[in-house]
Specification:
Helix content: over 70%
Strand order of the largest sheet: 1-2
Order of helices and strands: HHEEHHHHHHHHH
Oligomer: single chain
Length: about 300
């Protein structure tokens, strides 16, 4: 919701990604140093962790990431470096309603596919039916808005970027489960990697006036309050607190069940608008919410039987 509202503010999408990462970096950099120093203090032998490439250090990136380099790179690319630029840039092309349907709506589908390929999870008939019902529920809630992509223009570009953002987050979800990472350590690791990669590149492209997608930076023109809001709400709130909570769910429920629960977001957001904003209550909202709820229930029960 914050990301959708931010699309109408002074900052451009990559400006908002920059503010998000700087806000998160102010917390995770000292936090990462603290965790790594505690690891060193409590185990002076610095035990190596065995991975496919051999024995590696249990920390990386100059002592900022409390995870090994391979895990930090994989989680950082998909969870930090790719997701935010895709998601924020998509809002400049497609309406907010498209993001509310496409990102949480396609997340369970791509997560289930990656879980099959990487984790070897079974794709049962019950789970497949649940995913179909979730997709149908999302389409009922916001499908009419998606049809605008056929009217011409650049709306389709935003829709593609929304799906790309969803797919990268699905990959992060599956990798976090594969590595069985601690939620706090995972959040610190992928944030540190994303900051170290994105911030210098962003600064260089701004200096050269060569930002992609024809974007320009309005960072120097934006009100200070807007910048601080992005740093706190997106960087600390969503980037740290939200990601730790999400990764905790991954650890306990698994990637498929966790992301299936997020499919309720479009319906619940639309239902909230009915009660709090006085928007009309249409039949498709009720039907979409019921389908999504039934689909999530099927998916959870299917996973519980395994």
């Amino acid at each position: 919701m914050i990301g959708r509202a931010s699309a109408k503010m002074t900052l451009t999408p990559l400006d908002m990604v920059f503010c998000r990462m700087i806000g998160a970096a102010l917390v995770v950099f000292p936090w990462g140093v603290f965790l790594v120093s505690r690891m060193k203090k409590h185990d002076l032998s610095f035990p190596r962790m065995r991975e496919s490439t051999g024995l590696v250090k249990p920390y990386s990136l100059f002592g900022l990431s409390p995870l090994p380099l391979r895990q930090t790179l994989m989680l950082g690319v998909f969870g930090g470096l790719l997701f935010s630029p895709f998601a924020y840039t998509a809002f400049t092309y497609a309406p907010a309603a498209h993001g509310a349907v496409l990102m949480p709506g396609t997340l369970p589908l791509s997560t289930a596919l990656f879980a099959m390929l990487i984790l070897g999870e079974r794709f049962t008939q019950q789970r497949a039916l649940g995913l179909v019902l979730i997709a149908c529920g999302g389409l009922l809630v916001g499908g009419a808005s998606l049809l605008k992509a056929f009217d011409g223009g650049n709306v389709w570009k935003g829709d593609v970027l929304f799906v790309c953002a969803s797919s990268t987050w699905a990959m992060y979800s599956v990798l976090a489960r594969k590595y069985k990472v601690d939620p706090v350590q995972a959040t610190i690791a992928f944030t540190v990697f994303a900051v170290l990669c994105f911030v210098p590149l962003y600064a260089l492209l701004v200096y050269l006036q060569a930002l992609p997608f024809g974007l320009v930076s309005h960072l120097v023109d934006a009100p200070r309050s807007e910048i601080i809001m992005q740093m706190l709400m997106q960087g600390v709130g969503s980037g740290i607190v939200g990601n730790i909570g999400f990764t905790m769910m991954l650890k306990h429920f698994g990637p498929v069940r966790t992301t299936m629960m997020t499919a309720l977001v479009p319906s619940l957001a639309a239902l909230s608008a009915v009660f709090f904003l006085g928007e009309p209550l249409y039949w498709n909202l009720i039907a979409g919410l019921l389908l999504a709820l039934f689909g999530v229930a099927l998916g959870v029960l299917s996973s519980a039987k395994k």
